[in-house]
Amino acid sequence: MRTALIAGATGLVGSECLARLLGVPGYERVVALVRRPLPHTDPKLDQRVIEFDRLGAAGVEFPAATDVFCCLGTTMRQAGSQAAFRQVDFTYVVALAAQALDHGARQFLLVSSMGANPKAPFFYSRVKGETETAIAGLPFEAKQIFRPSILLGERAENRPGERAGIAAMKGASFMLIGPLRKYRPIAAATVAEALVRVALRAPRGVNIYESNDIERAARG
Q1: Is residue 171 part of a domain?
Q2: Using an 8 Å Cβ cutoff, are 30 and 22 in contact?
Q3: Does residue 180 sit within a domain?
């Protein structure tokens, strides 16, 4: 039996992933690292309220787990600055991975983004790419990197610009076939399903899943 650790459990993908982890028999315990308590009660769930900027600090206890699900992420608008964005999407993610590795984790699953590239001209995609490179370089037995397209699902916060983009992409989806299929919007629930299914298989090495790969993985 295995223990899952999830960070970002209140987000769009993270909340869906948490629900699935609690429901599958493959994990006997699910540890959620949260900034504030979740409105969940489940015998498998172990909530740990932490400050992510103190990961690795002296005296801060870190739970052991076999598989780590990293659904951390913000937007430039939410972060307010490039430095704040980088802190969440790079610094926190890499610190989480380093701590998990030190405490015996064997697999790390990262929700990244379509277009992630450390040499990208756009800051958002460049940071995502730098994060992927950092995670790929760590000695986990298995590293799973997911690059979903625009995510579909009910968000707590209002994002009018994103809604407009989703509507436009949905309208053009019928034209996105073959190699372009990875650009189709994808449901957060589908990404979460793929995360859990891939985690249970745990293919070794570094594995990257674009949106079309994520859809296939979610179907089993």
Answers
A1: no
A2: yes
A3: no
Reference 140, options 98, 188, 83, 170; nearest CA is 98
The whole-model pTM stands at 0.89
Token pair 């674009």 is at which residue? 210
Q: Cα separation of 88 and 55, whole Å?
A: 12
Provide the domain count of the chain: 1
How far is Cα 196 from Cα 193, in angstroms, rounded to an integer? 5
Is the residue at 177 inside a domain? no
- By annotation, the residues acting in catalysis are 124, 128
How far apart CA 191 and CA 13 sit, in angstroms, is 7
Residue 70 lies in a domain: yes
Say which CATH number the domain at 154 has.
3.40.50.720
pLDDT tens sequence for the chain (220 residues): 899 999 999 999 999 999 999 999 999 999 999 999 998 889 999 999 999 999 888 778 899 999 999 999 999 999 999 999 999 999 999 999 999 999 999 999 999 999 999 999 999 999 999 999 999 999 999 999 999 999 997 755 555 555 555 555 555 555 555 565 666 799 999 999 999 999 999 999 999 999 999 999 999 8
Tell me the residue range of the domain where 134 lies: 2-158+186-218
